[in-house]
Amino acid sequence: MTLSVLWLQAGGCGGCSMSLLNADTPDFCGLLRNNGVDLLWHPALSLDEGPGLSGLLQDCLSGRVRLDALCIEGALLRGPQGSGRFHILAGTGVSMIEWVRRLCAVATHVLAVGSCAAWGGVAATASNATEACGLQYEDERLGGLLGAEFRAQGGLPVINIAGCPTHPGWVTDTLMALAAGAFTQDDLDPLGRPRFYSDRLVHHGCTRNEYYEYKASASKPSDLGCTMENMGCKGTQAHADCNTRLWNGEGSCTRAGFACISCTEPGFQNPGHAFHITPKLAGIPVGLPTDMPKAWFVALASLSKSATPKRVKKNAASDHVVVPPVPRKTGLR
Question: What is the pairing mode between strands 141-142 and 284-285?
Answer without folding.
Answer: unpaired
